[in-house]
Each structure stands twice: as structure tokens, then as C-alpha cells.
From TrEMBL, chain A:
GO terms for MF: ATP binding; ATP hydrolysis activity
PANTHER family reported for this sequence: SPERMIDINE/PUTRESCINE IMPORT ATP-BINDING PROTEIN POTA (PTHR42781), SPERMIDINE_PUTRESCINE IMPORT ATP-BINDING PROTEIN POTA (PTHR42781:SF4)
SMART domains documented for this protein: AAA
Protein name: Iron(III) transport system ATP-binding protein
Boundaries of every ABC transporter domain copy: 5-237
Classification via Gene3D superfamilies: P-loop containing nucleotide triphosphate hydrolases
Record keywords, A-Z: ATP-binding, Nucleotide-binding, Transport
InterPro entries assigned to the protein according to its UniProt record, in alphabetical order: AAA+_ATPase, ABC_SmlMolc_Importer, ABC_transporter-like_ATP-bd, ABC_transporter-like_CS, P-loop_NTPase, Sigma_54_int_dom_ATP-bd_1
Length: 350, 201
């Protein structure tokens, strides 16, 4: 399959600090990649490097099979890469109307520019405000115009720098769907920088997670959910916890001792570990299980969030129940397939 | 007007030169420009007479020297006024223009210049007003027989022709008001980007 984007061993230093190191990344044609990571992990630098607004110190950046940046030997500037980009703070030209913003981005040979620009605005649902200037629009409308402008260049690869982060929940949800539909309809590949897990679930074909300037894990959203490679990825994919737990070695495997019960997990035991778990990993058990005490129960979006204190653990475990659970002693069961242990350095243990 | 335009053009060049360089460079440049303001006009004028009254650069007595002196005097003000405006210009606007493959001329004229037009024209007007009534440098450097407005007003005053002096002062103010009105109108009629003209937008 043809690759829209390929990055091989790319590194970047800024102000004497290594911002990106040894980045290897590939994106197939038509795929949607979500680039996630904490603030300062290098996401925006990587996006700027792909865009040609920043240069790689080492490695290769290839777009649609053409080398764009070969660490000083080849460098094709942003204006010749044929990309589209949506900026976090929109970056619409404030002195031009929305129609002019889109029309200016159309390729010079485009016939009937106003019709073409208006068609794009119409597709994004902002044709009615085409004659207004960006400052006269809401954030959601501005971002729609930003997406229309990015699509105007007919890019094969679209870059999106946290385009939804400044929008309210409802607008974000609607724009997410519209963005996905627009890209599917045009067959455009996309790289979206985000630290919102919803973007991962609702937009991504692939997710790459940056930690300290390096790609910690890349795969489908499902692969990341099933086996997160770090505490950040576990949290990003919806796991709870991060509490320190006692771990023993048993026949070369990690044995987690909770409330007198032993849960054996595959993999070498770490000296000190932190425990993460999925929503449904912990539930009340009729008989047997681990002795615990229900310390709080509160209603949360159609179910009940329960917190159990387990002897030997510094912090309570939490999970969900369909019905309210009485406070006090209770036995719980833990599904070993839905918990993750990371040693304190952040490496996945099992 | 030529001097004001020259001051603004040089100011933009100075700001471009400062862009992306160290703070020390910018501070040095600002200091150099500030000395131009710190030196009294008469001393500065005398300096120009000494520097340009020779065989190497025989500019003394020409209109060119007067224009250069006016522009140099107005440069610190022009740089300050334009510097604030350019500092507020979001770099992402130019980056967006680059991503969308706009040619350099379009980026400079339709994006950068268009966004700087208002503060630029205000700066130009301020510099033009200062230059129009400037006296110390004009007294020393004006071309014989072609008195600048400031010199003409003082000269009429000294000959007790107060009516002429008043008329000249009012004429200067009227010219400035006319310029301001014309510039406001030009900004209001700014219109569409040059690169979209004639392309059926």
C-alpha cells in the first residue's frame, strides 16, 4: 500500500534540548493518525517538521514517496509540500472574509474560484457566513472555515494541530464527525495532534503516542487499549489508578497480593509497581474474592461509582456497579486481564 | 512625504534585520537609533554639514541631504510604532500562507502589508507631521531658495509678517488633515486581496 507519510529516524533539537529523537512513523494512504502525548512531548514540533516549518536534525521525512527532508541534504519548504493544515487557534487571515480565506488557498489554476470556495464552505456548513470576517464568527464556525481552507489545497495529507481543543463539547463532537466524513469522502490522509482520548476513539485508524520526544507506542486504538505500553497510555485509553502495589515473584511471574488473595500476572515482577485497571476490572463478588470495604458510592452517568479500600493498599480501588452498593465490608473480584502493572519507571511489567 | 516614506521603509528594513536575531542585537539597534533622538537637532544638523560638505559626498545644499536627515531623525519613532504592530502580528498567519503555497509577493502584499497597513499609515502620518514642521535641521540644511514650511513660518514671523506665518501654519495643518482623510478613505476602500482581483471572487 502507498504511504502518505514515512518518517525514519528523525530527531530535532531546540535550544540545546532534544525535542524529538529516533522517530519512526508510517501512515498509509487514506488513514487517520492521531498523534497523542503530554504537553511538551514533542507533538507540535513533529507536526511542524512534517509541514516543513521546521527542519529535522537527523533522519528522513517522506511524503507520498518523495523525500521532503533529509537532514540538510534535501529540504523542500512548506510552500512546495502540497499539504493542508488546520491550526489550533485557526490562523485565519483576519482582514479577509471567509470566502476570501478559502479562495486564496485554492490552487492558482482553479477556475471559478468563488464557486469552488463557496462549495467547500457549504460542505462544512458555513456558506451562510461566507462574506463575514473571521472575528465575526464563533469558534466552531472559524474552525469549520479553517478546515474548508485546508481542504481547498486538495492535499493528499492534512495536518491538524489540536483543532478541536478550544471548542465546546457539543461543537467538538459535531465537528469530529464532520471532519471524519469529509476526509473519508475525499480520501485524504490526516495527522491530528491531540491529547483528547475521544479523538483517538472517534477519529483514529492509527494512534502514535509520544513520550519525552520518542514514540512510545504506535498501533490501532484497540491495540493500545488492550496493551498500553506506559502509564500515560493506560490513562489515555481510559484506565484508572496508578497506585503503588506490593508485588512478589512467583515462578518467574509477578504476583500481586491484595487483601490476602494472590493475582498472578505474566511477566517478570518489578521491585516497585503501580497498578492501573479498566472500568470493569473490579466488581462486587458474591463469595470468595478479596476482602474490601466500600468507602463511597456516587451516581455517575447512569451507573454507580464505587470506591473500595483494600488492606495493604495506600489508596482505594474504584469501579462501577449497576445498582447502589451499601457501605461497609464487601468482597470483590479483580479480572487479571483488565489490570496493568507498570514499574515505577513507567515500563509495562507483564 | 518622501522623507516619511523613506523613514518607514528603513524602519521596516531594521525590523526585518532584527527578526530572529538575539535580544542583544535588537537592544543595540534600538540604542543606536535612540542616540539619534538624544542629540539636539542643531548639533545633528551641524554634523550633517560637516559630513556631507566635501568632495567625497557633496550632498550639502541638496534636497537629498534634507530628506536623508529628516528620515534619519524620524527613524526611531517609525521603528517604535511599527515594531509594536509587527510584534502583534501572529506568525502563524504567515505560516498558514506558506502551507497553502501562496507566492512570496502575495504573502508580503496581501497578508503582511495588508495587516500592517493601518498602523503603518498612522506611523507615516505621525512622521510626516513631525517632518513638515521640523525646524533645527531644516534651518541648517535647506536648499537656498526652497524653504521648508517650518523655516518659512519662522522667517515670516521674524519679518513681522504674522498673517503670512499664520496662513502657512494653517496650510500645513490643512495638508496634514487632507492626508489623514485620504489615508482613512484608502483604508476603508482597502478591498479584496490583489491576488484575487480579476479572478471572479
Amino acid at each position: 500500500m502507498r504511504r502518505s507519510l514515512r518518517i525514519l529516524g528523525a530527531s530535532r533539537r531546540l535550544g540545546g534540548r532534544v525535542v524529538l529523537r529516533g522517530i519512526d512513523l508510517a501512515l498509509n494512504d487514506g488513514d487517520f493518525l492521531v498523534l497523542a502525548g503530554e504537553s511538551g512531548s514533542g507533538k507540535t514540533t513533529m507536526l511542524r517538521m512534517i509541514a516543513g516549518l521546521d527542519r529535522a536534525d537527523a533522519g528522513i521525512v517522506e511524503i507520498n514517496g518523495t523525500v521532503m527532508d533529509d537532514a540538510g541534504r534535501v529540504f523542500i519548504p512548506a510552500e512546495r509540500r502540497g499539504l493542508g493544515m488546520v491550526f489550533q487557534d485557526f490562523a485565519l487571515w483576519p482582514h479577509l472574509s471567509c470566502l476570501e480565506n478559502v479562495a486564496l488557498a485554492l490552487p492558482p489554476v482553479t477556475p471559478k474560484r468563488n464557486e469552488a470556495a463557496m462549495a467547500l464552505l457549504d460542505r462544512l456548513g458555513v456558506a451562510a457566513v461566507a462574506r463575514r470576517r473571521p472575528a465575526q464568527l464563533s469558534g466552531g464556525q472559524q474552525q469549520r472555515v479553517g478546515i474548508a481552507r485546508a481542504l481547498a489545497t486538495r492535499p493528499s495529507l492534512l495536518l491538524l494541530d489540536e483543532p478541536l481543543s478550544s471548542l465546546d463539547l457539543e461543537t467538538r463532537e459535531r465537528l469530529r464527525e464532520e471532519l471524519r466524513e469529509s476526509l473519508r469522502a475525499t480520501g485524504v490522509s490526516a495527522v491530528l495532534v491531540s491529547h483528547d482520548p475521544e479523538d483517538c476513539w472517534k477519529l483514529a485508524d492509527q494512534v502514535a503516542v509520544l513520550e519525552n520526544g520518542a514514540i512510545r507506542q504506535q498501533g490501532t486504538p484497540q491495540a493500545l487499549w488492550e496493551a498500553p505500553a506506559s502509564p500515560y497510555i493506560a490513562r489515555f485509553t481510559g484506565a484508572h489508578g496508578g497506585i503503588p502495589v506490593p508485588v512478589m515473584a512467583r515462578c518467574g511471574q509477578a504476583a500481586l497480593v491484595l487483601g490476602g488473595e494472590v493475582i498472578v500476572l505474566p511477566g517478570a515482577p518489578p521491585e516497585k509497581a503501580r497498578l492501573f485497571w479498566r472500568d470493569d476490572a473490579i466488581c462486587p463478588a458474591g463469595e470468595g474474592g478479596i476482602a474490601a470495604e466500600v468507602v463511597s458510592v456516587n451516581f455517575e452517568a447512569g451507573r454507580f461509582r464505587v470506591r473500595w479500600r483494600v488492606p495493604g493498599l495506600a489508596q482505594p480501588l474504584s469501579g462501577y456497579a449497576a445498582a447502589p452498593v451499601p457501605l461497609g465490608a464487601q468482597r470483590i473480584s479483580i479480572d487479571p486481564a483488565k489490570i496493568f502493572l507498570f514499574d515505577v519507571s513507567g515500563d509495562h511489567c507483564p | 512625504m518622501i522623507a516619511a516614506t523613506l523613514a518607514l521603509a528603513t524602519g521596516i528594513a531594521v525590523l526585518k534585520l532584527q527578526h530572529g536575531r538575539s535580544l542583544w542585537f535588537a537592544a543595540g539597534m534600538q540604542g543606536l537609533l535612540a542616540t539619534n533622538m538624544a542629540v539636539p537637532g542643531l548639533v545633528l544638523g551641524a554634523g550633517y554639514v560637516i559630513a556631507f560638505n566635501n568632495n567625497v559626498l557633496p550632498l550639502y545644499g541638496t534636497a537629498l541631504l534634507l530628506i536623508v536627515a529628516y528620515a534619519a531623525g524620524a527613524l526611531p519613532v517609525a521603528v517604535r510604532l511599527l515594531g509594536t504592530a509587527t510584534a502583534q502580528l501572529d506568525m502563524k498567519l504567515d505560516e498558514a500562507a506558506r502551507i497553502f503555497a501562496l507566492p512570496l509577493s502575495t504573502r508580503l502584499i496581501d497578508i503582511e502589508a495588508a495587516l500592517l497597513a493601518r498602523p503603518g499609515l498612522h506611523a507615516w502620518l505621525l512622521v510626516a507631521a513631525a517632518v513638515m514642521f521640523e525646524l533645527p535641521v531644516s534651518e541648517l540644511l535647506y536648499v537656498p531658495g526652497e524653504m521648508p514650511l517650518g523655516v518659512a513660518i519662522v522667517s515670516a514671523d521674524m519679518m513681522a509678517r504674522y498673517d503670512v506665518a499664520a496662513r502657512l501654519a494653517l496650510l500645513g495643518m490643512a495638508v496634514l488633515a487632507g492626508l489623514a482623510a485620504a489615508l482613512c478613505l484608502a483604508l476603508r476602500l482597502g478591498g479584496m486581496p490583489r491576488s484575487l482581483e480579476g479572478k471572479a471572487v
